[in-house]
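CORE FACILITY INTAKE
Project code: CF-77B
Contact: R.S. (postdoc)
Sample description: multi-component assembly, two entities in total
Requested service: structural model of the whole complex
Turnaround: standard
Below are the sequence entries exactly as provided by the requester. Do not edit them.
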Amino acid sequence: MTLPPLAYHALVGFVVLNVVIGMVTYVTLLERKFAARMQSRIGPYYVGPHGLLQPIADAIKLMLKEDVVPTTADRWVYNLAPIVFLVPCVLIFATLPFAPGLGVADLNIGVLFFLAVSSLEIVGLFMGGWGSNNKYALLSAMRAVNQIISYDLPFVFAAFVPVVLAGSLQMSAIVAAQQGVWLGFVPKWFVVYPVIGQLAFVAFLVATLAAENRVPFDILEAESELVAGFRVEYSGMKFALIQLGEYAHMIGTSFLAALLFLGGWLGPGSEHALVGALWFLLKAMLVFLVVTWVRWSFVRIRVDQILAISWKLLLPASIVLLLATAFWVAARGGDGV
Amino acid sequence: MTETLGFWVAAVVLVAASLAVVLTPNLFHAVLWLAAALVATGGVFLLLDSPFLFGVQLLLYAGGVVTIVVFAIMLTERLVGESIRQTSRFVFNGAVLAAAVFVGILGFLLQAGAVTRPAAVGDQLGDLGRALVGPFAAPLQLLGVLLVIALLGALYFARAED
């Protein structure tokens, strides 16, 4: 039996959406356990065996909580903000192929779609910060806008280095360009591409940290000064939606990093779609854990330092890197390496 | 069928959001409506088989320009004191002008008659890229120079008086 195309796409979208939400829920547990280990703690332990049911308990708790709307809030903006925030964060998964042929849509502008949609996240963020009518939330939203303006460009430029190397914006083509080995054992992933690869990977990781507002770039959350930033007035399910969006964005970006630099689903036995998907998941989780590792090891840096890093170092460096990559690829005959 | 439906959805959102941008008194709401209008414009590009323009529209306009406008509002408004109300003083004149432009375009379209859109052929994205570094390299560079001049001008006007 074959389904009509529209129904088929709806079904695939539904499945991917639920897988993503389930994954995001459990990634919070992974982060908490990992952070606990780093600090010689045990972490969540009591709900279910070894705390395995903790995310479910958290979700139920958030759904049952009272939804408080501040009386002075800009009601429409305040209520719409979590949705506007969540939609782009989930939409980025639409173009990620999890294995050859296993994904919602393998667009020919894949990477561009990902970057464009994830840049919309900021709209929901400042809607929340403004709509709450709270000075902490507003300060946080201002800092967020400030930071996004500074880090969006290096993020995009660093992500375009593998695109230029592969000669395509299509995600599956970028993975295909990383197939094969050098010297018989080194995989041809872009992260091991001499010089260009490593520099671009580092730039991408730093810009990712900033784009996801993670420590050491979490001035907009800064719990010691801004309580919790733009989401301080949110409670119950709306708070849950914002958290969900934030983690979905983080996981999506980890997948993007794994795809652009770590060869995506390539690995031993990746001819089978499921083994490939497992490799991809492992690599993405590796990137996520590196980000978490940074989070629990560094201190927050000041606003002026954040801006200086972006405008004086990261932005010029990533532009030069992208230009150098383009010249290198053009010198070798164009259309990728 | 789905394409026509998609066009009407995008068109209605686009027109409604654009009207809201000029008619709402709240400056911040106006920016949010502007974001909606820009995303709807991206949707129109998508329906015209131009996914690249759609991506660029979202990345540069809905993501970039709106952020910068919000940045400007946040710097100038609430934190400093009372909120700025936006008032459109020439609503009537604007409406007349918009109607005139609409009639003009409509007349042009009616004269042109039914046009079938040529189907997308080949690697459009690659062709676009090669065109921008090949035959259109000089115009692209000139546009870049123009933008730099605009930036320098903005810096000049915004400089601290000494």
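Facility notes:
- Chain B has two domains: 2-121, 124-162.
- The CA atoms of residues 3 and 157 of chain B lie 46 Å apart.
Invoice: internal transfer
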